[in-house]
Amino acid sequence: xxxxxxxxxxxxxxxxxxxxxxxxxxxxxxxxxxxxxxxxxxxxxxxxxxxxxxxxxxxxxxxxxxxxxxxxxxxxxxxxxxxxxxxxxxxxxxxxxxxxxxxxxxxxxxxxxxxxxxxxxxxxxxxxxxxxxxxxxxxxxxxxxxxxxxxxxxxxxxxxxxxxxxxxxxxxxxxxxxxxxxxxxxxxxxxxxxxxxxxxxxxxxxxxxxxxxxxxxxxxxxxxxxxxxxxxxxxxxxxxxxxxxxxxxxxxxxxxxxxxxxxxxxxxxxxxxxxxxxxxxxxxxxxxxxxxxxxxxxxxxxxxxxxxxxxxxxxxxxxxxxxxxxxxxxxxxxxxxxxxxxxxxxxxxxxxxxxxxxxxxxxxxxxxxxxxxxxxxxx
Length: 379
Fold this sequence. Notes:
- The chain is α/β, with parallel strands linked by helices.
- Helix content is 30%, strand content 24%.
C-alpha cells in the first residue's frame, strides 16, 4: 500500500513565476501530490530551502527515450536502455516528457505502476510518413529494415489520405497519446535532395483523423515548405524548423514551435537554426522546449535550455520548458506553474538567479507528484 504524503512546507526560497519571469520570496505548502498554498509564514513540517530558487518541474516536449542504438542488438536493449535514461531525466528535474518516436505504451505502464522511475510520459509510438519518408525503414542493400519491429509499435507508413487515416487509427489503438508525422524527411534527406513529404491532402486527413480520435499532431519539419504544409493542416506543434522563412513563421501563428536546437548546435546549420528561432520569436510565435534526446551521448533539456537562453533569455527559456510547454501539451490546468491546486512538480536550485548554464550542478532537490525523488548520484 502506498503511504500517504504529509503536508510539507518548502520554506525560505524564492519562487519563479514563468508567466511574468519574476521570482519572489515565498513558502510553498505541499499537501499530497498538490500544491496547497503559496505565501509567507506557512505552517507545516518545514524543509529549509533558503538561498534557493523553486521552479516548476521541467517539461521536455521532444524526447526519444527508447531509440534503437546504432549497433545491432536484440530489441529488448532499446527498452532496457530507457530505464536509466528516464531515471536520470527525473533526477535532473525533468518531470514530464513527450516521446516523439520510440517508446511504447508499456513504458508508460511501467512508470505508472512504479516498476521503473522517471517523468510522466506521453507517447506517440511511431513517426507516420509516406513511402520513402522519414518513417520508412528502407536500406538499399536489404530493402525494408524495421529497427522498431514490434507489435506494440504499428506500421507507420501511409500513401493517400485514407491510408493516413488508417495509420492514425493504428497508433491510437496501440495507445498513442499524440500522433507524430514526418512532414519533411531527416536532415540528410533534405540535404541530399531526397526529401519525400506527405501531400497536403494526406496531412489534412491525418490531422482530421487525429482530432476525431481525440489526439493532437506534432510534425517533424526542417524546411519552410514542410512547416507551412503541416501548420496549415492543423498540426499543434512543429518540431525543428531549421530553415524558417517569413511564410513559415506566418503559418506558425496557430501552432507552437519546438526548435530542438541541441542536435545540430555544433553543425554547419547551427546559426541558420538560431536565426529561424529569432525570426519566430520576433513574430510572436509560441515557443515550447524540446531537446530531441535521441543523439548519443544523450543531450537533454538542461542542454537545450542553455541554448534557448542564448536567444530568448533565461526567463523566456524557462517559460518554454514549464508553463508554455504545459499549454502545448494541454496540461496547463495541472502543472507548469507553482500555484495552489496544481501538481507538486518542483525543482529547487541553489542560488536565486535564473542562470541556466549548469542546471544539473545547481539542482538541490526535485519533487515529482509531491514526492522528493532527487538522487544526486543520478545527475
